[in-house]
């Protein structure tokens, strides 16, 4: 479909990174995601990554498992491991240089309709454990998507992952949030020029909080009540 030519144009225009999002859904009754769905999505991500690297771009590889559904955190961890194993097998088969790539995965968390609470420590542990089992140490950085978590949840979970002493990580664990980085700033702005200063302040506060979380140094509380508002959207698309 001309991806190589487009990548070459983007590189000439100054781009150095590209991103491809592949979405999967968990439904235990239907057996989703199927092995075929996982393999097909993984192969598409790998072909995209190989084309990007051939034209000088760093591919951001984003296999996202949606939060939709009543599944447990244990089941999400199992599926996350399966999906990432497929992705790295496909990347290897397509001779993608892992050192020149970025992984952008979901955090391991229970489904939006799951009826038991899950602590930040649990989410951090299950996420890091899943990654340690299948993501090669050659990958330099893992930049998480927020996936519908509140701003504060996403920041606290990232901080917890970078604070785990029992599970060593060979990669940098950081953030590549959309909603969980921008929501408060967009609300403060409201499309009005008079609110630009307030929006800038809100964005800077959230970015600083996530920067601290990437070092395991976030103490919580940034953004106040606004940072705790739900950002979840069923069957999220963008």
Description:
The protein has 238 residues and is mostly helical. The chain has seven helices and five strands. Strands 1-2-3 form a three-stranded parallel β-sheet, covered by helices on one side. It has a two-stranded parallel sheet with strand order 4-5. The protein is globular, with a radius of gyration of 18 Å. The mean pLDDT is 94.
Comma- or semicolon-separated keywords:
mainly alpha; three-stranded parallel sheet; 7 helices; 238 residues; two-stranded parallel sheet; 45% helix
What is the ordering of alpha helices and beta strands? HEHEHEHEHEHH
Determine the fraction of residues in helical runs and give it as a percent range.
Answer: 40-55%
Q: How many strand segments? A: 5
Physical arrangement of strands within the biggest beta sheet: 1-2-3
Overall average residue pLDDT = 94
Major beta-sheet overview: 3 strands, parallel
C-alpha termini separation: 21 Å
In brief:
The chain is 45% helix and 11% strand. It has 238 residues and is mainly alpha-helical.
Topology:
Blueprint: H1 3-12, E1 17-24, H2 35-54, E2 58-65, H3 73-93, E3 102-103, H4 120-134, E4 141-144, H5 151-161, E5 172-175, H6 179-189, H7 196-213
Parallel strand pairs: 1-2, 2-3, 4-5
Helix pairs in contact: 2-3, 3-4, 4-5, 5-6, 5-7, 6-7
